[in-house]
Amino acid sequence: MRAGLLPGGRNEAAGEPVQSILQVYAEFKLMLGRDYGLTEDLLHVHAGLIIFFLAAILSRQRIRSPVPIVIVYALAIMNEMVDLLTPGKSAGAFEPVADILNTVVWPSLLFLLARRRISRERTSGGNESPVADPPPA
Asked: Which of 40, 86, 91, 124 fits as disulfide partner to 95, beta carbons 3.0 to 4.6 Å?
């Protein structure tokens, strides 16, 4: 095999820009945790909530819409794929699953609560009053 070629005839230099982008991204995440004193788990929780609300705002959808929650799940999975491709980053077998769960659990709960309110409004005909009717005189 000639120098500079990877298996399959790919050029080694072609993967370098991607690897450097992945490395910069990984270093950025480490810097966030280090500079703000946050654990990686807490960063995932905050990132999930921020992405959820930003996705709702930027897509002009309510949080009960599936659009924001789908974006959170997609970005959580993409982040873990990036982590797996980052050189020098080793992860345990359960770490990617835990990271995804930390990212999506609170946005998922908020989404489900918002959806529950919709179904309650539909079943009650929208006549649900937050204040009880006064007793008959």
From this structure: 91
- Helices assigned H by DSSP within the chain: 16-36, 40-59, 66-85, 95-123
Q: How distant is the alpha carbon of residue 80 from its chain centre?
A: 10
Q: What is the per-residue pLDDT for 130?
A: 54
For residue 10, is it within any domain? no
What gap in Å lies between CA 13 and CA 132, rounded to an integer?
70
Decide if 132 is inside a domain: no
Q: Which residue has the higher pLDDT, 67 or 11?
A: 67
CA distance 120 to 126: 8
Share of the chain above pLDDT 70, in %: 71
Among residues 123, 126, 83, 89, which one has the least CA distance to residue 102?
83
Q: How many Å apart are CA 85 and CA 80, to the nearest integer?
A: 9
Angle between helices 66-85 and 16-36 (to 10 degrees): 110
- 4 domain residue, yes or no: no
Do the beta carbons of residue 83 and residue 100 sit within 8 Å? no
